[in-house]
Design goal:
By secondary structure, the protein is an alpha/beta fold. It is about 25% helix and about 35% strand. Helix 1 packs parallel to helix 2. It is globular and about 35 Å long.
Length: about 110
């Protein structure tokens, strides 16, 4: 079963594999690298909608360094997608919890 097992500044372990870069994790087990950015944009959101998630969780880093474009927030509401924005440690907890009953995607920033 998919689970984010641990996080520390600069790395994240999903199941038994450690990643040292930002990642996108889908409920279906897919983990893909994310180009490190301090902006979550509408275009990034549109790309994620191809998987038809119910919820998207944005882990904004340990110091809340990632900002969400207002256009992305508006578009998520328009498409009836729940967008949860939290610092990375809390986002990971939320992802692991929601993973049990929702089609959820996590966008995780592993540093600031």
């Amino acid at each position: 079963m998919l689970k984010i097992k641990s996080f520390r500044f600069g790395s994240l372990t999903v199941n038994n594999k450690t990643y040292e870069n930002d990642v996108i994790i889908s409920w279906d087990g897919e983990v893909i690298p994310r180009e490190s950015s301090h902006i979550f944009s509408k275009s990034e959101l549109i790309d994620l909608l191809l998987k038809d998630p119910e919820t998207i969780i944005i882990g904004t880093g340990t110091a809340d360094g990632v900002k969400i474009e207002e256009e992305a927030e508006k578009f998520a509401r328009l498409k009836n997608i729940e967008l949860i924005v939290k610092k990375t440690p809390e986002a990971i907890e939320e992802f692991n919890k929601l993973l049990k009953n929702k089609k959820v995607i996590a966008v995780i920033h592993v540093t600031c």
